[in-house]
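As promised in the previous annual report, we have extended the structural survey to additional targets. Below is the entry for HupE/UreJ family protein.
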Amino acid sequence: MHPILLRRARPWMVVLLAVAAALLVLLPARSASAHPAGTTGVFVTIQSDAVDVEMQIHKAGFTAATGYDVTDQAALDAVSENLMTFILNRVSVSDGTSALEPTVTQSPELVPVNGEDAIVTTVRFSDAGRSIEGAIKLDYDFILDVVPAHQVYVALVSDWANGQVAEGDPQVVAVLGGGVTEVTLDRTEQTPLHGFFSVVWLGMLHIAEGTDHLLFLATLLVVAPSLAVRASKKTGWGFRWTQPIPLKKTIGRATLIITSFTAGHLVTLALVSLGLISFPTKPVEILVAVSIIVAAIHAFRPLMPRGELLIAGVFGLVHGTAFATTILDLNLGFGEKIVAILGFNVGVELAQLTAAVLVLPLLILLSHARAYSGFRTVVAGVAVVAATTWIVGISTDQESALQPVFDQIAQFPIVFYLALVAIVVALWYFTRIRQSEPTQLEASRR
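The corresponding structure token record, generated without further manual editing, is:
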């Protein structure tokens, strides 16, 4: 960045940071939990040929029902076989055809849930590989036969054929207790299209709520209205950004950035989702954060002409691997997985295009103002800080220190967007380039 432009931009950088900080402080925090503390959570996943039931059993209720007061995993392992026999005599699942046979797929584990110890185990109910048909009936009498006042929250995680495909907190469908021990899940509107449209929506939500993916895309798009030119002796080595550039060229650059990112993440989304390749989760999450830092460095000062296309394509492969974990978590059959990959990718692209349509006009407008260099620097700086906190959080198995901030922004996207519009318009109005002033691009050609 040219030193004179940097000095001019600094006051606006301070204004941007101050307004953003004030907005983040004023936004209220939100919290959510799968089920209240002191209760049991039962999570149902309906697949094409099986029903998975994950039980998060409150330890106090578990002790009252079984007489076992386990204090650690070793004590739980010692009674695990007897425990599962005890549970399976009190938990059953049937579909519209017949009762389903249980198979333990996750042995009992003692883990904290909602701040309290719980026994977590998963049982799969199926019938010789045949398809699941009709309504699903869950009969859950564990603990309730001894402590009727105990509450059991039953939540539906996903049901592809019935259009229930969720990410995050599952949908609570019933609360058992007080003599009620059964719940029937109605599945009268089964069609593959329901699953397709649901996973399209899931893909859109994944981008809308995925701060890391949005920040990566935003850091790439912020250079779209600029052009990388070779730096002069006065401005230093390598390349520097100059703007504005013609509108058609800006739109073309943004289109190529999104296309390159799409091509990259589509490849690994398909390969990982289909089980053809696999990678450890933690390194992938760290690489996603690294991709943001690389894009931010490029926004600070161009690494090479059109380097944003290379960054988008190469690191799109990494982001696609992260996307694939969502498809894998749905536990779909092969045919359903193919449709899910297509639908999820359509949703991701729709969300990306929506974000570009909302943000690109603001960037184009501001590129005709002296404050744009400072604005681009602030965006890059925020990206580096956020990505660094993600790397630290992932490496230490803790939540990012800034995650509550991004949660607040996700809860009030319209407020945040309108604030961004106000900031951009104000910056453009006070620092816009007059017709009599040469643009950076014109000046660089003289």
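The chain is about 55% helix and 15% strand. The longest strand covers residues 101-113. These points will be discussed at the next consortium meeting with the crystallography subgroup.
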